[in-house]
Design brief:
By secondary structure, the chain is mainly alpha-helical. The protein is about 55% helix and about 5% strand. The structure holds iron/sulfur cluster (2 copies).
Length: about 280
């Protein structure tokens, strides 16, 4: 697939995500509302998996509406089988900060993978999120990047800012400016702070313990160690060891950027690819 076609395909995914979850379309809510008989779909809060995750932790899962629980289950099942496709192909909030990062050359951007131990911080934050909910400190909707994007979209659509607070403004700036525009790959919030993304990655990791589920995989025999995939990865989930690329599935969001830019087609997305490894490439 050409680079342009691939980028258009990714952009179409994020636009579809916007139409599914944001005003004025909210197609996901409208569709599930028809089948699950729930009429309360008025905002991104309803399908946001933070809330059912929090309710499950506190043992109050019944308090989540059917749309919330259905979406949480859908995320878990699709992430187990296909990887975090929601993050890599659909989530408008992640796509937006990644898009913003294209506005600056990498030399002006933070290299978080170099500065911080991203994987332990990511999972540590997730544990902290669950623990804070369990302690009764509430669900941090005020620190939700989905929600701040919804506020912006609503403002652009209606001219009315339905909610504003310093924490929401700080979240918007953190997710989209510091960890978006000024961060290599533009996915600093996804890499560190998004509980939904980390939940999806955990499901992906669990899926890889079973036969069948899909993932991105490098055919090391074919890899020539050029490093283009590592440069292109928005999650900074690729490292080179002895001139061979290695994907960290604890952060990979199966966006396909690496696969698309590899000059020797050494990266594939599929299931049980390990069995194809012995094939020798030129
Ligand atoms: S782009 Fe392809 S050949 Fe280059 S390091 Fe990555 S996997 Fe290897
Ligand atoms: S490793 Fe590849 S598929 Fe995974 S996040 Fe990075 S670029 Fe996307």
């Amino acid at each position: 697939m050409t680079k342009t076609k691939f980028l258009l395909q990714r952009a179409a995914g994020y636009l579809a995500g916007f139409a599914l979850f944001y005003e004025p379309f909210m197609l996901f809510g409208n569709l599930t509302g028809r089948f699950l008989i729930e009429t309360g779909f008025t905002s991104i809060h309803v399908p946001c998996a933070r809330i059912p995750l929090a309710n499950i932790i506190t043992g109050q899962w019944q308090e989540s509406g059917p749309t919330s629980l259905f979406f949480c289950l859908l995320l878990a099942v699709t992430s187990i089988w296909f990887g975090p496709l929601f993050c890599g192909r659909l989530c408008p909030a992640g796509g937006f900060s990644e898009l913003l990062s294209k506005a600056l050359p990498p030399k002006y951007q933070l290299d978080l993978a170099y500065l911080l131990p991203l994987t332990p911080l990511r999972y540590g934050f997730f544990v902290g999120f669950l623990f804070s909910v369990w302690l009764g400190l509430g669900v941090p909707c005020a620190y939700c990047n989905y929600y701040t994007l919804e506020l912006l979209a609503g403002y652009l659509h209606t001219g009315v800012l339905i909610s504003s607070s310093l924490s929401l403004l700080a979240t918007f700036l953190l997710a989209n400016v510091l960890l978006g525009l000024f961060t290599k790959g533009g996915r600093g919030y996804c890499s560190l702070l998004c509980p939904v993304g980390t939940f999806n990655s955990l499901c992906h990791i669990i899926g890889q313990k079973m036969p069948g589920p899909f993932k991105m995989q490098v055919r090391t025999n074919a890899c020539v160690g050029c490093g283009r995939c590592a440069q292109a990865c928005p999650m900074q989930a690729i490292e080179l060891h002895e001139r061979k690329s290695a994907i960290n599935i604890q952060r990979c969001i199966v966006c396909g950027q690496c696969q698309n830019c590899c000059p020797v087609k050494a990266i594939r997305y599929g299931s049980n690819l390990q069995q194809e490894e012995p094939r020798h490439e030129k």
